[in-house]
Design brief:
Layout (H helix, E strand, L loop, with lengths): L9 H15 L3 E5 L4 H4 L12 E6 L6 H8 L4 H6 L2 E4 L11 H4 L1 E5 L2 E5 L2 H11 L2 H12 L5 H8 L10 H11 L6
Parallel strand pairs: 1-5, 2-3
Antiparallel strand pairs: 1-2, 4-5
Helix pairs in contact: 1-3, 6-7, 6-8, 8-9
Length: 183
């Protein structure tokens, strides 16, 4: 039964992963987006878990994301039935430094492997997307001292500045809004 306005629970994310594995016939997934916190931080604050979708792609065959999106994505019968869904994305969806996988962590759901970006890399991808919901997410991470603004800036400097000319200012704005001290 869908739970309107509720945060996603770890058990729901695991349900989405098992369904995605059955659809794609894959055992390893990269999870990006805010719900990666369900694996990175077992007791993440509810304010950071407001999305009802799990952004993922099969690690070895990202092209299978379309199958997942079509079967258990937004507005699917899965979504209507459970009130949460998968968002089949690709490696290009979350913009992170080229070496992000060196900092990624592995998590296990039965025989499934879940690969999650390190929290600063995840936050940086939200900074690049620069939507209002991303601003709220990053600001909350900063306010709760879950990420360091200096580290976020270092990771941002690893991206192509010409491609993301306003990134540093966007990060600084979130830090100011969070009343975070500048280094």
């Amino acid at each position: 039964m869908p739970r309107d306005g509720a945060t996603m629970q770890r058990s729901e994310a695991e349900h989405v992963l098992r369904a995605a594995a059955a659809i794609a016939q894959e055992q390893s997934f990269v999870v990006v987006g805010s719900q990666a916190l369900l694996f990175l931080m077992p007791h993440a604050p509810d304010a950071l878990l407001v999305s009802r979708e799990l952004d993922l792609y099969p690690a070895l065959h990202p092209e299978k994301s379309d199958l997942i999106d079509g079967a258990i994505g937004a507005l699917s019968s899965f979504d209507t039935t459970f009130g949460y869904h998968a968002d089949g994305v690709g490696p290009e969806t979350a913009v992170m430094p080229g070496d992000w996988m060196q900092r990624a962590s592995l998590h296990y759901v039965g025989d499934l492997t879940v690969i999650c970006p390190e929290l600063h890399d995840l936050a940086l991808s939200k900074c690049v997307a620069a939507r209002e919901k991303d601003a709220l997410f990053v600001r909350e991470l900063i306010q709760r001292s879950l990420i360091a603004v200096a580290t976020l800036r270092e990771r941002a400097a690893m991206l192509d500045a010409d491609k993301y000319p306003h990134l540093a200012a966007w990060i600084d704005r979130r830090a100011l809004e969070a009343k975070a001290p500048f280094p």
